[in-house]
Amino acid sequence: MDVADIRLKRAYEVPAPDDGVRILVERLWPRGVKKSDAAIDHWVKDISPSPELRKWFGHRPELWGEFRQRYAAELRQNADGVADLRKLCASGRVTFVFAAKDQDRNSAVLLRDFLLGGGKT
Fold this sequence. Notes:
By secondary structure, the chain is α/β, with parallel strands linked by helices. 38% of the residues lie in helices and 13% in strands. Helix 3 packs across helix 5 (107-116).
Protein backbone atom coordinates (compact mmCIF):
# COMPACT_ATOMS: atom_id res chain seq x y z
CA MET A 1 0.00 0.00 0.00
CA ASP A 2 1.30 3.43 -0.90
CA VAL A 3 1.55 5.74 2.11
CA ALA A 4 3.84 8.31 0.53
CA ASP A 5 1.86 11.51 1.10
CA ILE A 6 1.95 11.98 4.86
CA ARG A 7 2.25 15.52 6.22
CA LEU A 8 2.70 16.64 9.80
CA LYS A 9 1.01 19.56 11.52
CA ARG A 10 0.64 20.77 15.07
CA ALA A 11 -2.87 20.68 16.49
CA TYR A 12 -2.53 24.41 17.21
CA GLU A 13 -2.13 25.30 13.53
CA VAL A 14 -5.18 26.21 11.48
CA PRO A 15 -6.50 23.34 9.35
CA ALA A 16 -6.08 23.85 5.60
CA PRO A 17 -7.97 22.41 2.64
CA ASP A 18 -4.79 20.75 1.34
CA ASP A 19 -4.31 18.79 4.60
CA GLY A 20 -6.33 15.92 3.16
CA VAL A 21 -7.51 13.47 5.81
CA ARG A 22 -6.54 14.82 9.23
CA ILE A 23 -5.53 12.10 11.69
CA LEU A 24 -4.87 12.91 15.34
CA VAL A 25 -1.98 10.69 16.41
CA GLU A 26 -2.05 11.49 20.13
CA ARG A 27 -3.40 9.43 23.01
CA LEU A 28 -4.80 12.55 24.71
CA TRP A 29 -6.75 15.37 23.12
CA PRO A 30 -4.47 18.45 22.70
CA ARG A 31 -4.90 20.91 25.53
CA GLY A 32 -6.84 24.05 24.66
CA VAL A 33 -7.95 22.86 21.21
CA LYS A 34 -11.68 22.78 20.55
CA LYS A 35 -12.85 19.68 18.74
CA SER A 36 -14.91 21.86 16.41
CA ASP A 37 -11.79 23.85 15.44
CA ALA A 38 -9.46 20.89 14.97
CA ALA A 39 -11.20 19.36 11.93
CA ILE A 40 -10.02 15.88 12.87
CA ASP A 41 -11.28 13.10 10.61
CA HIS A 42 -9.81 10.19 12.60
CA TRP A 43 -8.29 9.84 16.06
CA VAL A 44 -5.94 6.87 16.39
CA LYS A 45 -5.30 6.80 20.14
CA ASP A 46 -4.26 3.16 20.23
CA ILE A 47 -1.32 3.60 17.87
CA SER A 48 0.20 6.48 19.80
CA PRO A 49 2.92 5.81 22.40
CA SER A 50 1.76 4.02 25.54
CA PRO A 51 1.13 6.15 28.64
CA GLU A 52 4.23 4.61 30.23
CA LEU A 53 6.43 5.48 27.26
CA ARG A 54 5.03 9.02 27.00
CA LYS A 55 5.71 9.62 30.68
CA TRP A 56 9.22 8.14 30.48
CA PHE A 57 10.17 10.25 27.43
CA GLY A 58 8.71 13.54 28.66
CA HIS A 59 9.92 15.22 25.42
CA ARG A 60 13.49 15.24 26.72
CA PRO A 61 15.81 15.52 23.69
CA GLU A 62 18.51 13.40 25.33
CA LEU A 63 16.12 10.42 25.36
CA TRP A 64 15.11 10.76 21.68
CA GLY A 65 17.23 7.88 20.36
CA GLU A 66 15.91 5.38 22.87
CA PHE A 67 12.36 6.72 22.53
CA ARG A 68 12.57 5.99 18.77
CA GLN A 69 13.53 2.38 19.48
CA ARG A 70 10.90 1.85 22.18
CA TYR A 71 8.08 3.39 20.16
CA ALA A 72 9.04 1.37 17.06
CA ALA A 73 8.87 -1.77 19.23
CA GLU A 74 5.37 -0.78 20.38
CA LEU A 75 4.31 -0.22 16.77
CA ARG A 76 5.61 -3.65 15.74
CA GLN A 77 3.52 -5.15 18.56
CA ASN A 78 0.42 -3.34 17.22
CA ALA A 79 0.22 -4.87 13.74
CA ASP A 80 -3.56 -4.42 13.49
CA GLY A 81 -3.41 -0.74 14.40
CA VAL A 82 -0.58 -0.13 11.94
CA ALA A 83 -2.49 -1.97 9.19
CA ASP A 84 -5.61 0.13 9.86
CA LEU A 85 -3.57 3.32 9.71
CA ARG A 86 -1.91 2.21 6.46
CA LYS A 87 -5.38 1.79 4.94
CA LEU A 88 -6.30 5.34 5.94
CA CYS A 89 -3.04 6.63 4.47
CA ALA A 90 -3.58 4.77 1.19
CA SER A 91 -6.62 6.91 0.39
CA GLY A 92 -4.50 9.93 -0.58
CA ARG A 93 -2.92 12.82 1.27
CA VAL A 94 -3.12 12.63 5.04
CA THR A 95 -1.91 14.94 7.77
CA PHE A 96 -0.82 13.53 11.10
CA VAL A 97 -1.90 16.05 13.72
CA PHE A 98 0.18 16.19 16.90
CA ALA A 99 0.44 18.37 20.02
CA ALA A 100 4.18 18.39 20.82
CA LYS A 101 6.07 21.67 20.71
CA ASP A 102 9.16 20.06 19.20
CA GLN A 103 8.28 19.61 15.54
CA ASP A 104 11.34 17.45 14.80
CA ARG A 105 11.30 15.06 17.77
CA ASN A 106 7.81 13.76 18.43
CA SER A 107 5.82 10.57 17.96
CA ALA A 108 4.14 11.80 14.75
CA VAL A 109 7.57 12.06 13.08
CA LEU A 110 8.40 8.52 14.17
CA LEU A 111 5.03 7.17 13.08
CA ARG A 112 5.41 8.72 9.63
CA ASP A 113 8.98 7.39 9.33
CA PHE A 114 7.84 3.93 10.48
CA LEU A 115 5.12 3.78 7.83
CA LEU A 116 7.29 5.17 5.04
CA GLY A 117 10.23 2.97 6.03
CA GLY A 118 8.28 -0.25 6.00
CA GLY A 119 8.40 -0.75 9.76
CA LYS A 120 11.77 0.86 10.47
CA THR A 121 12.53 4.24 12.05
